[in-house]
Structure formats: C-alpha cells, structure tokens
Amino acid sequence: xxxxxxxxxxxxxxxxxxxxxxxxxxxxxxxxxxxxxxxxxxxxxxxxxxxxxxxxxxxxxxxxxxxxxxxxxxxxxxxxxxxxxxxxxxxxxxxxxxxxxxxxxxxxxxxxxxxxxxxxxxxxxxxxxxxxxxxxxxxxxxxxxxxxxxxxxxxxxxxxxxxxxxxxxxxxxxxxxxxxxxxxxxxxxxxxxxxxxxxxxxxxxxxxxxxxxxxxxxxxxxxxxxxxxxxxxxxxxxxxxxxxxxxxxxxxxxxxxxxxxxxxxxxxxxxxxxxxxxxxxxxxxxxxxxxxxxxxxxxxxxxxxxxxxxxxxxxxxxxxxxxxxxxxxxxxxxxxxxxxxxxxxxxxxxxxxxxxxxxxxxxxxxxxxxxxxxxxxxxxxxxxxxxxxxxxxxxxxxxxxxxxxxxxxxxxxxxxxxxxxxxxxxxxxxxxxxxxxxxxxxxxxxxxxxxxxxxxxxxxxxxxxxxxxxxxxxxxxxxxxxxxxxxxxxxxxxxxxxxxxxxxxxxxxxxxxxxxxxxxxxxxxxxxxxxxxxxxxxxxxxxxxxxxxxxxxxxxxxxxxxxxxxxxxxxxxxxxxxxxxxxxxxx
Amino acid sequence: xxxxxxxxxxxxxxxxxxxxxxxxxxxxxxxxxxxxxxxxxxxxxxxxxxxxxxxxxxxxxxxxxxxxxxxxxxxxxxxxxxxxxxxxxxxxxxxxxxxxxxxxxxxxxxxxxxxxxxxxxxxxxxxxxxxxxxxxxxxxxxxxxxxxxxxxxxxxxxxxxxxxxxxxxxxxxxxxxxxxxxxxxxxxxxxxxxxxxxxxxxxxxxxxxxxxxxxxxxxxxxxxxxxxxxxxxxxxxxxxxxxxxxxxxxxxxxxxxxxxxxxxxxxxxxxxxxxxxxxxxxxxxxxxxxxxxxxxxxxxxxxxxxxxxxxxxxxxxxxxxxxxxxxxxxxxxxxxxxxxxxxxxxxxxxxxxxxxxxxxxxxxxxxxxxxxxxxxxxxxxxxxxxxxxxxxxxxxxxxxxxxxxxxxxxxxxxxxxxxxxxxxxxxxxxxxxxxxxxxxxxxxxxxxxxxxxxxxxxxxxxxxxxxxxxxxxxxxxxxxxxxxxxxxxxxxxxxxxxxxxxxxxxxxxxxxxxxxxxxxxx
Lengths: 587, 522
Ligand SMILES: Nc1ncnc2c1ncn2[C@@H]1O[C@H](COP(=O)(O)OP(=O)(O)OP(=O)(O)O)[C@@H](O)[C@H]1O
Ligand SMILES: [Mg+2]
Known about the structure:
The complex is a heterodimer of chains A (587) and B (522).
Chain A: E1 13-21, E2 24-28, E3 36-40, E4 45-53, E5 56-61, E6 73-80, E7 82-85, E8 92-94, H1 101-108, E9 126-131, E10 138-139, E11 144-149, E12 155-159, E13 167-172, E14 175-178, E15 182-186, E16 191-193, E17 196-199, E18 208-210, H2 221-225, E19 234-238, H3 245-255, E20 260-266, H4 270-279, E21 296-301, H5 307-326, E22 330-336, H6 338-351, H7 365-374, E23 377-380, E24 386-395, H8 405-411, E25 416-417, H9 422-426, E26 439-440, H10 443-453, H11 458-482, H12 489-506, H13 520-542, H14 547-551, H15 568-584
Helix pairs in contact in A: 5-6, 7-8, 11-12, 11-13, 12-13, 13-15
Chain B: E1 3-4, E2 7-11, E3 14-18, E4 27-32, E5 38-47, E6 50-55, E7 67-74, E8 76-79, E9 86-89, E10 105-108, E11 119-120, E12 125-126, H1 131-134, E13 139-140, E14 147-149, H2 155-165, H3 170-180, H4 187-197, H5 202-211, E15 226-235, H6 237-250, E16 256-262, H7 273-287, E17 291-297, H8 299-312, H9 326-334, E18 339-340, E19 346-354, H10 363-371, E20 374-377, H11 380-384, E21 397-398, H12 401-404, H13 414-438, H14 445-462, H15 472-483, H16 496-502, H17 507-517
Parallel strand pairs in B: 9-16, 14-19, 14-20, 15-16, 15-17, 17-19
Antiparallel strand pairs in B: 1-7, 2-3, 3-6, 4-5, 4-7, 5-6, 8-10, 11-18, 12-13, 20-21
Helix pairs in contact in B: 9-10, 13-14, 13-15, 14-15
Residues 245-246, 268, 336 of chain A line the site of magnesium ion.
C-alpha cells in the first residue's frame, strides 16, 4: 500500500464509526467514494469502502477489529486501494495489502500486530538506473525509459506510467536513485520516478490481447505431456484436501520456464509459505541457475490473517504480475487457493446482508472470478513488447465435490483443467492428476511448438499414450469382474504397458532431486522407451511367446526408473536395447 | 465501568443490550442475574446504541432486570508456569481445589497470527512409537496433525499412547539444531535464560523418566521441556477421567494443564476453552521454552457450538447448517501451532474429532483437513478386526513428513519404504474386492503376493497394541520384512542401492512362496 507516505496523503474527509461486526465496520458522516482507502479507529486500521447507502458507509477492514468501538474516528484518504510498483518487489514476501512481512517482523516481532503500515517498496533503497533513451526523444504511456538490475535474474524496466500523456524528454540521467526521485522529466513538466501506483481492482492497460501459442513448459510430465498450459493461459487445479494442489503449484513455481513468478498464498497454511521462503533462496532457477527467489514475489495472507485482506490479496498479486508483463516478461501467477478468496467474498457479503446466491456465495462470484482470469493472457503491451500472464488457481471444493459453485464457475472460464483425484492421492500416485477427467484446450495450438522444439512425432506419441490409457480404463472394468487372467493375452499386455505409462510417465515425485524436474526432452524419451517395450512385446506375442514370459523380462521394470536418472539419455538407450534383446531372444 | 439494566432481548445464547456509551467489538461483559450469579460473555456486534452479547455460561437465569457490565477489554487468559499440574474448567477457573493462580501475565485469548516470515519450518521428527504414524505419517515438532475418528473408536487410547511415548530421538534433535544454527539466533542464551527461569524444572523431569520418554528428552540438557495441554470440549466425565487417570498414572499430570468443558457444561463456553488452552500453550512454548503438545477433544463439539451461535444470530448458514466462516474460525485455532525462529519451544497440536456418520466429507473433518498438516484416520473395519490402533494409512497423511525424515533424521530408506508400502498396500486392498468375486485361484501369482502383503501389513505393521513402543528402526525393519514378500523388481519406489542394503535376502523365496498358500481370512 502506498500510505508509506501516509504523512503526505491528505485526509480528505472524516467520519465516525457507527457499528462493528467482525471485519465489517460502518461509518456515518464520511464523505467517500467506492473503494477508497480509509483508516479506522484511533489505531488507524486500514480498510476499504465497499458500500455506500445514504449517510452510511460500509468498510471492510484489513486488520483485526477486536476492541474497536462505535464513536471512533474514520479517515478517508480519497485514494483507491493501490499497490506500489517499482524495483524491489522480487525476492520479497508481502501480506494481502502489500505490506512486506520482513518489515512487519522487524517492527512488531513474530506475531502480527495491527495499525502498522509499511510501504510496498523500500523508499530509501537506491537502484542503478541506465537510460535507454535520450533527451529529445518522444515517449508515450508505457514506454520503456531505461533499466535497473532488480535481481541477479531480472532486469527491471522503468516505464512511463500508463496514465501519462507522454511528451518529449527534457532530462534523463543515469545514476543511483531511490524509487521516488525523479529520473526523467518531460517537456510537459511531468516528472517520472521509478515508483508507480496502481489501483488493484483495475487491470493495467495493454494494446491488444492475442491467442497464446507457446507452452508454459512446466517440467511436469503429465502436464507438459497430456495437458499443457500456454504462456498466457489459465488453469484450475481443483482437488480435495491433501490431493496435491499446493505441491503441484510449488512445482510450477520452481520449474516452469516463466521469467517472473507471483505466488499467492490465499487463506492457506503459514508453514507452507515458510517452506517457500526457506527453500526458494537456495534452489536454482532451472533456466538461469540463479536462486529461484530472484524471480519470485510471494504474497501470503494465511488462513488466520484478516479475512478482508484475503479478499484483496488476489488483486494485489495480479496487479504486480501485470506490471512485469508490461516490461515484456512472461509471468506465471499461482493462487492457492481461490476457494478461500471466494469464501472471503462470501463472509463479507453475508455481513453486508446481501442477498445470497448459490451456497451463500454472493451473486457476483462468477463475475469476480472471470474478471480475475481475464487479467491473464498473452498481451501486446502499450510499449510494443509482448508479455504474458499465465494464471493457475487452486480450487478447494468442500467434500471434494466438483459440482460446487467455485469449481463450476472457474471451469467455465479456464482452459486447462487439472483434476486432482483423492483415490490416486491415497495410493500415492502423484501428481494425482486424473488423466481421464483433465483436459487442456491449448493442446492443439501448442503442438507446433513441441514439434519444432522437442520431437517431430510429439503429437502422435502423446496420442498413442492417451489411447493406451483409455483402453486400460475400459479393460479395468472387465478385470474388476473376472480378474486379469481371464483376459486375452494381447489385452493383458496392454494393461502391462499402461501400468508403465502410469508408473513411469504419469507419476513424478516432487521430492526426488532428479525426478521433480523433467524437461520435455526427457518426458519424450520416457514415452519412447515405453513405446519400444510395447512394440517389441507385441511382436514377441505375435511370434507365440506367452504373455507371462514377456512381462517377466528383467529389463522392463527399469522403465519406472528413468524419471530418477540424471543421465537419462544413456539410460534410455541402454534400456531400449536391453528390452529388445531380451524379448527377441525368446523367439 | 458502566453498568446497564437495559437488556432488550434474550435469544438462545445471545443477549441484546441498549447502551449509551460505545463498547468495543469482542470486549468482555459480565452479566449478573437477579440471583447474584455472574456470567461472562463477549460482544459479537457493536452498534452505537445496542450491542449483541454471546454469553459463555448460557443464558439460563438471565432476565431483563439482570445487570450488564462492560469490562473495557477483550478476553484474557492469566498465564504462568504454575499452571502446570492444574485442572481448570472450560472458562479457566481452577476446579482442583488447589491454590489460587497468581498470573505472571494476562494474554489475549484471540492469539495474533504468527507472521509467516517469523516461522521456523517444522522438521524435527517426533517418535511416537506407533508404526503406522512414525513409519508412514510422521509427526514433527510444531505440526498440527488431527485424529479423524468416529464414535465408538479408540481415538483416546491412541492420543494417550502418543502423549506417553512421544520422544525426540537425540540424533534428529541435534541434526536439526545444526541445520538451523544460522537462523536461530542465540540458542545458548535462550537455554540459559530458561534454566534460571524455571525453578520447577526438576520435578517434571522425574515424572518424565517414569513415563519412559517425552518430547523434550533429546534436549534435556538444553533446558527445553515437554508439557501437555489438554483441552476437553463437551466430552463425557468418563472420557475426561480416562485422560486424567492416565496422566496421573504416568506422572504426566505434573507437566500438564487440563481445561475441562464437559458434556453437561454450557455449549457456548466451548468457544473459549480451546482458545484458553492455546494461549497457555503459546505462552509456555514461546515465552518459557517448553515443547508443548496440545490435545483438543472433541472438535466436533466445538463446531456444534459454533453452529448453535450462528443459528441464534440468524446468520445465513453455510454447508449443512454450519456457519460460512467456520473455515476461518477453525484456522484461527489450528494455525496456533508451530515454531518461531529464535525461540526454543514449540506447539504441536493433536486435535481429535469424531466424524458424524463416519463421513470424511462432512464439513467438520473436511474443513479441518483443509487446514491441518495431514490427518490420522481411524477405521471401523480395522477396529472390528481387532487391530490396535486401527489406523487406516491410506487416507492418512502427514504433510510435514518429507522434511522430517531421511538420513541423519530417521533413516535413509524411510521415504522409499513408506512410499512402497503405501503403493503395495493400496494394490492389495484393491484386489480384495476382486478376490471376493473370482477367488484366489483366479488371480495371478503377483496379485496373490499383494493380497498377502496387505494382510500381513495390517496384522504385523499396523497392529501393535497401545502399550508397545517401537522405535523407528524397528518400525522400518518390520516394513522391510513385509516388503521382502514382494520380488525386488516390484519395489520400484525404492532406490536400487537401498534395496541392496535392506532387502531381506533369505526371505524372498521362502516367505513369498509360503505366503501365497495362505488363504485370506475374509
Ligand atoms: N508430486 C508429488 N510428489 C510426491 N508427493 C506429493 C506430490 N504431490 C502431493 N504429494 C503429497 O501429498 C501431500 C498433500 O499435498 P498438498 O499439500 O499439495 O495438498 P493440497 O491439495 O494442497 O491440500 P490442501 O487443500 O489441504 O491444501 C503432500 O504433503 C505430499 O506428501
Ligand atoms: Mg494446499
């Protein structure tokens, strides 16, 4: 939030608290517009105007309201809820209203107290600015003026604010500046600093939105292989508790080939955020080798932190993502969990005594969800660069039942659906993405990328794998009735091949140092190895070798170990020739 | 302090009072009935001329003439180390006939959230001595790991067994402190402070020795100690006595604080009991350096009370009548577990809940599972088979397991053994349905091995009795003995080097051969 500079924000009007009910406070005699930021009570708790009815203004408060009493003051800043944008957001962890948690810790200790404000970006810290333009150049809104090395991985682009009228540069200089100092002056008299503010509930402008054509390569076999997500695409991961939503999102944050990762812990566990804070500084970014934290911005509004700030944390995150998109970067945004966000809306809405919609959620649930996912996409930026935001939302359906409103409304919007399955999770088949329920509508438009960059027969190979898995589920129904041995030999063999696809390809252990990251080249080779086994095995069967002998060969179980091999190319080559040799010996 | 006699409405646990001076939200209220009884309550909604109050001890006996005093502060728990060994009621008043409690501090019972940045990631292995937990759903210090049970199942026996046997093996405690020496601040100082702070240190340690181990064992020399906080909500006196008798028998009572809201105590009080318990736990852990194990039972009764208050307030109900904010409310309890950087102690929570209708999709277990770091699932079928403890490992989970186990913490093969046993048991379980239809003969040799594995897994690994304390070596060795029933090539979750090291060579042929012949019991 930008009241870092609270001292210089004018209080435009003052009112009085009328009533307090949990996170919702109403005030009288306050002159305010919707979404204005206000300070409530003597402690100055931050809040936002969410309803105006005659003289009564309703406010959602982003901090605990215990002890706040009617009669206390309410001050209106006249500014909408905004974030500070500028260098210093990466390698940082924020709460839901962009207060840096490390600063809060140093100011108030291990427990979160209230009434403490902190700027979203450090106002003192200086950055080395290198101009890319000269005096006399003309600039427009969004244009890139120069760069700042924000972290070892990311070059921060300093841009003309989107609401500027532009003009001719009258002064521009390289050197060390803090984020509020003027670095560029325009002939119009406008002065530009590195820090921008942007209201979180409003999308930052762009020139155009395009249809995504490159995959967000995740390093996860089932995702890249069967259900790929596009850069600029949207995906949902619904699943009951303990099915692997968080682990999957963390894997995406670690291994996907995005330039920037914005990870929003929305109403989930404190320890999960701590884990990211602990791990990411030590883990290498698979693309640059630099610490992962150097490309990551974390937003943590855990389940026990104020509900209203949970409602806003998603907006804080996507606005930060848009800012890096404007610089021309590919941003991956993870929100865990969007259900908690929806529940925060529901809680506030019910305190407002709004007419409830389905299962008590407000009628505007669907609209809010689609507004959020609409802010993802592949964009032509105002400055001519191209940037993307890929948005991945976890969904936590009550009782694991996907027919509930948040899952259903999300599925109407997103194009990739990774359905997590309690059954698979129970038998420790991870990631527990159910391969018959999940889908990706980007599959076809991304094929050409995989064909060009990985393997010519990527689409055919995938189709082969899908067909085998489909056949398996049909056969399983029969097996449930009569047992496997009652099937004809060729079908028994298909089941065996499908088992290797499940165990060797679909399963991927997020906690194994090697297996956790599988570049598409490796995923492809695993497919190919299993396909070799398939082809050789069916040849052997045709030549009259009994199925028990085929499935008992020593080399085959090694198919399940390719994932954990560092030198997988060599391993696969050897394995393919072992399998071939062993099977051909039999006839 | 202003006093009113302006009650306008009494409805269920709620009282509405007209006021002329503003009252703070969440503040504590005292209501004196005409008969002189004083009840406490809390402001649920505060407007400039009227407030809604939730009365903890129930509204019985309150009439419109009752007088209402606003205390001008939110609810506090008086805390001191002297609480150890005491039994209190659900509102925090001593009921053991002991001396009055002289508090060192009074702390707000609605704990502030721990800043995630200040947390220390929990990764110290707690050995419970229970194979199904240690081997496959490992508990670590600072974790919240509930027991999902159902009426008539022996969850109390399991909770007591854990409380009795829990210990942190020395290696892993050392390992972890070495890992974190950088982030931890001045450990030595902290330990010294404590030694001087804790006059009663010797007494509890003696009790500890009799009980055969405790959470603090590994760190005895560092001065950190183990304490148990037991919060009872709406359980029967008989159940409560089961706990207290066991604590007394093992000497654990001296290092315990017991909060008791029993079945016939007011339901609304259940809103405060766990908060008092957790406030005490946080104080002992983060200010006095104790490793605190908090047992809360039965969370189902807590949630019922929450629903009752919601209904009285005429709120729009959420799923199955429970309030829409139940997730947030429960999170405010469960998230009060953990470790904090630079502080010695820890809060580990084992909440117990009984699933209505044995249904784990019911809002109470469902929302709990979404907040806690896993769950231990009790199973009715295993219970009727006589398995003790009847833990079904398949739906059970410990999310903090991965960082708490392995070389230097438990054993290098731990993760792989656990994964493999999960996979093998799941496969065996699946085959049971099929075997009922087609019989054993129709199954392949491979399938028969998995069926036998499932059988022995339940009878030898999960089954151990409530008095048996197995160390982690023993647990993993039993695991290998069972995995030895399967051919090496089937162990694809286990690293090949580990198979070489641990696979029971002799047993491969003989055991599996012999096992195939054994018919399933069912
Ligand atoms: N890819 C994976 N590899 C290995 N283990 C996994 C994987 N995914 C999930 N798990 C296991 O499943 C557990 C639960 O996963 P996770 O915490 O991601 O669930 P969740 O869906 O986020 O649950 P909740 O909704 O309660 O937050 C993890 O602790 C881990 O043990
Ligand atoms: Mg999760």
